[in-house]
Amino acid sequence: MDIGSWGEIYMNWFLKGLKKGIKTEKFPKTNPIDIAPWSTELNGSGNVNCPTKAIDNGSWNSERCIYCRRCYPLYSPTGNIDIFKVNKKNNIFRRSFYVYPIDIGTCGGCNLELKLISSPQYDMTRFGIFFTNTPRHADALIIMGIMTEGMKEPLLNAYEAMPEPKLIIALGVCAISGGILGTGSQIKPDVIIPGCPPNPYTILKALIEAKGDKE
Amino acid sequence: MRRLIGQLGKFCLYSDTYFEGTCPHIENEEIANSPYGAFNFTYGPSAGGLFESVGIDINTFGEYIRNIKVNPNYKKREIRILDKSIEDAILYIERINAAFSASHVISFLSAIDKISESDIDSDVLNLRILQIEMERIRNNLFVIERLVESAGFQVPLYQLQYLIENVNRKIGKLFGHRYFFGVNSVRKININDPKVDFTGIEREFKTIYEDIIENRIFIDRLQGNGIIKDERSIGPAARAAGFYYDARIEDEFLPYKDFDFKISTYNSADAFGRLIVRSEEIFESLRIISQIKVKSKEYKIKVNDGEGIGRVESPSGDSAYFVKVNNGKVVNIDLLSPSSINIELFSKSMVKNIFTDFSFNWESFGIWISEVGVRFI
To answer: What are the structural domains, with CATH classification, of chain B?
Structure first.
């Protein structure tokens, strides 16, 4: 195949891409579209038999909630995606924020939702957020899943391999509190993103805030 | 025709029956001697190219793969499900693997239905079919997306991601959750908004599909890669090798016979064949979905004591549960996951291939480590 043919092939793909037009949403300036309700804030009152004690004494704790709907209709989703907490942010990452995801015992849900922030609807790269294939190049470690015996050492190795300054992000209720399946990550997180799994809107907004972007 | 599916706890499961005992293993062609220059290395458990944590032990000269072993136990989870009620057990089952969550729960519930006095009408069973077929569409799109990502094809990669996100939003709108968590129970199937339109998905996927299978560079990476024609195959791997294997036509518990659809097969037995089968299945699943009318309906399962086996056709093949119930509690449970069989098939198909083929072949099987690395306690 000569260089001309290669050029033709790549131009062809380029045009196919252009033909689709811009698919990226204006989020976070605009509201989320078609959000799955059972991944957002819960609001209500009353005592319920919550299997993870996410509802205790009438208040909802996002860090424990697995969205099993046992509390419905006393508690119901509000559609509010701002359920994350950024305890530490660093605006040194404002222009470029490389994240390394590590799966320490997931069901695959957090892995799938995290990946989707690179889809055209969200396009994380417009905020300077990128995935990296090695913790050596990472600004943040994104921990997903319950703490399993076999992943304790790889998790510590990844943490120690990262350069300073670094952020630790716990993604999903399993990494935060263990959810219903076990215990959370052994490393204390700077950012927590609740959900089972968290939806991509929540993940993206939390990462934007963690990297120190201006409001 | 009877076919052997695999080991389900103490049973060897066949398409129409099961026997107590051990199934014959899928023989992996191991090359015993280790000649000069051959070495072992482990890829994983946590590396950029891997979607989940898994260890892959490879014996190679550097490119030619002599032997390969997959270790799914790095992230092995202990699921504390024994002595739980059926309702509570569902919370655990649906979190074994999010990508196949509906398949797992419906397979589990089918086992419960078989040992219970159930009054489940066809509308409920159709809603179960709807979930499995939506899950199949999402997962097959994901497998194809991973294949084009392996080839570095950015345009179809993002087009497929766009489509996956659209399907997720439709699932989320219809059932309230993008991975069917909290949807199924022993009383009802939770519906959030029954008015969801899937018509745009077929048109968009057809364009992408036609573009990628016309691309010589892409199909060269798949054709002849990971050939496996084994009677022990399941799911798309079996159908890509010409075997007419599908739990949807073998197990009549879910009324698939009421729907107009065809089982997609191919005859190349390689990664390309698996791509074709999965793609054609997306169109067939959309056909099934278009024939289902979404109606929310309550039902009642009176859980009896006893034991039973439930099986469904998950996106990657047979997914089966053996469940024993006593006093309304789960006292014994075993899982036969499609990924456990596909790992054996992948390992066998990888011998004598080259390392460059690895990611294409791995992705073509649609393996999920999370459903293999589990132990029920």
So the answer is: 83-376 (1.10.645.10)
